[in-house]
Amino acid sequence: MNNSSIDNIILATAKVWVRDSSGNYKLGTALLDSCSQVNFITDEFSQKLRLSRSKQYIEIQGIVIGFELPLTFCITTHIAYQPDPEIDISSWNIPGNTTLADEEFHVPGKVDLLLGTETFSSLLSVVQIKLGTNLPILQKTLLGWVVSGRYQTTNNSIKPSCLLTANESLDARLE
Questions:
Q1: Is 145 a member of any domain?
Q2: How confident is the model at residue 175 (pLDDT cuts 50, 70, 90)?
Q3: Is residue 60 part of a domain?
Q4: Are 16 and 113 in contact (CB under 8 A)?
Q5: How far apart are CA 81 and CA 99, in angstroms?
Q6: Exposure check for the chain: N or C terminus, fewer CB within 10 A?
C-alpha cells in the first residue's frame, strides 16, 4: 500500500439563514466561490423556500452576525461540492475562540447556494489564521470563520476532483 501524501483542497462553505416567501428563515449551506459571476441556488432549496421563478431578491443572514444581503440567484439542479469522505480534523488545532461559519465543513453534505464573486468579496475580512504546515487557513468573514485551502493526507482513498457542468446548446436540443 502506498502511503504517500496527497494534496486536497477544501472550498469555503458557510451555514446561512435564507428568507423564504413567507418571511421565515430556512438554514442552508452556501459555497463561497470567488470565480462565479452569478449566485446560484439549487432547485430543491428554491422549492423549499417556495420562491417564484422570476427575477427576485432573496435576503440571506449569517448565523454569527446579524446582517442581511439581498441577492439574486440563478436556479440550478445541483451545486457539486462536498468533502468526500469525511475529513479527519482532530489534529488541526482550530482555535476555540473562532466561530466557524460552517461547523460541519469536514462532513459530506449537499450545498444549497453558491455565492459568487461580488458576494464573496463583500463578505471577506482581512484576518487569516494559518492552521499549520500542509493545512488550510481560517479566513474571517461576515458569516464567521471559513476553512479553505490545501491540506495533505496520507489516505489513498481521497482523490482530487475537478467539477464541471456543461449545458447543451439550444440548437443541439432542437435537433
A1: yes
A2: very low
A3: yes
A4: yes
A5: 22
A6: N
CA distances (Å), 134 to each of 9, 14, 121, 172, in order?
11, 22, 25, 45
Task: Return d(Cα 120, Cα 124) in angstroms, integer.
Answer: 7
Q: Is residue 1 part of a domain?
A: no
Q: Which residue has the cell 435537433?
A: 175
Range of the domain at 49: 6-174
Q: Which runs of consecutive H residues, i.e. helices, occur in 32-105? A: 43-48
Residue 29: name the closest of 116, 83, 104 by CA: 104
Is residue 29 within 8 A of residue 13, CB to CB? The reply is: yes
* CA 19/CA 49 separation, integer angstroms: 7
Q: What total number of domains does the chain contain?
A: 1
CATH number at residue 141: 2.40.70
Task: Identify whether 68 is part of a domain.
Answer: yes
At residue 161, does pLDDT exceed 70? no
pLDDT digits (tens, 9 = 90+) for 101-155: 999 999 998 999 999 998 998 999 989 999 999 999 999 999 999 999 999 876 5
